[in-house]
Amino acid sequence: MNAKSLVTVVGVIAVSCSFALGQATQNGKPAAIKPSAQPEQAVPGGMSEADMQACIEAATPGKMHEYLVEGVGTWTGKVSMWMAPGTEPAVSTCTTTITSIMDGRFVKSETTGEMPGMGAFNGFGIAGFDNVSQKFQGTWIDNFGTGMMTGSGELDSDGKTLNWKYIYNCPITKKPTIMREVERRTGKDSMTLEMFGPDPVSGKEFKMMEIAYTRAPAAAPRTISGSAR
After folding, report:
1. Helix (H, G, I), strand (E, B), or coil: what is residue 150?
2. Torsion of CA 33, 36, 42, 46, to 10 degrees
């Protein structure tokens, strides 16, 4: 199969999956697939009933997505950052706002703060859970670099600790490098984020950053004063 034919096949599959999902959605929620009244009739794009069901299952939010959405809110963080092993940490604060997007399938994380001696910090990430690979997936960008970090994660058996492995290009070694992150929910409105990476000199892993987060109370609904209408 030549490259042009391969692109065509991939495109047809993608469109067919999207069409199948659209057909199998009612009021924004996935609906159960009903057996066809005419078994011999082809489903969209020549897909089988099993193909359609697989697409729906891949796109339907589940418990892992609920776990991510539980983190929605505005969080104030106390930051400790180590530039090298055995050094005193630089201390600062940050604010992270987590928002649910794509009908609960993903969460968006936006962080602002001040890095001591480095200036204002702005970061942006997207996280989700891929039903196909059965792993969390994430991306991250910020104003301290021009590369994108991409990674995958797994939830620990305690149901509170999410272990991430991100890959980025180290500006010092010029090589792909792994940054390990541990998100731990320590309470209903508290969590910690620890980041570990290799020391460029020794190559040994050390803790680069720790953020202790506290979630702000949810804002009360606004009410209109005066007589009811």
Report:
1. strand
2. 10
> What is the identity of the amino acid at 51?
D
Delimit the domains of the chain by residue range. Answer: 3-60, 66-215
Are 96 and 108 contacting, i.e. CB atoms less than 8 angstroms apart? no
Amino acid making up residue 163: N
Count, residues in the chain: 229
C-beta separation of 213 from 96 below 8 A: yes
pLDDT tens for each residue of 111-170: 999 988 889 999 999 999 999 999 999 999 999 999 999 999 999 999 999 999 999 999
Give the Cα separation of 109 and 100 in Å (integer).
Answer: 9
Q: Which homologous superfamily does the CATH classification assign to the domain defined by 66-215?
A: Calycin beta-barrel core domain (2.40.128.20)
Helix (H) or strand (E) run with residue 111 in it: strand 106-115
- Torsion 163-96-148-108 (CA) sign: positive
Residue located via tokens 């004063």:
225
| C-alpha separations of 171 from 82, 83, 174, 177, 187 in Å | 17, 14, 5, 10, 36
d(CA 56, CA 36): 16
pLDDT tens per residue across span 204-226: 999 999 999 999 998 666 666 55
Around 40, how many Cα atoms within 13 Å sit in the side-chain half-sphere? 0
Q: Is 218 helix (H, G, I), strand (E, B) or coil?
A: coil
